[in-house]
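We modelled the chain as a single entity of 132 amino acids. Its sequence is:
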Amino acid sequence: MISLEVEVRKLLLVFFVLTLSTMAFSQDFYYAEETEISSQIEIVKGEIVTDELKKVGQVTIQYMPAYDEARFIYSCPTPLFDQSIAMLAIKEAISSFIKDRGYYFYTYLKQDDTRYNNDKQTTYTSYVQLLH
């Protein structure tokens, strides 16, 4: 009876060690892949051009040409943030960006993200797939 308990404990220990080693390997692989991708991101910064939208914020574009994807990030001071202006600024930035880069269409990869930081900057991010 005691030898059976010892065997079960040994098996559980081996299973636990294998699980931990697998998790550690997968984490290292994930970070290596993330580093490769981040080195391919081209960041384009620009002020908003339209007179109506020029008042407040700035649009930053993180473009990944290997995946034909881009993140359009509108940022402005939190007290001045208006989501409709942010959406218009992003839409304007997307349309001028696809014309400059030779794309014809775009689709949204996921829902837009708004992040509020109490008394600093608020960011509105749009994730876009660019299509030829």
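As a brief sanity check on the tokenised model: The chain is about 45% helix and 30% strand. The helical segments are 2-39, 83-101.
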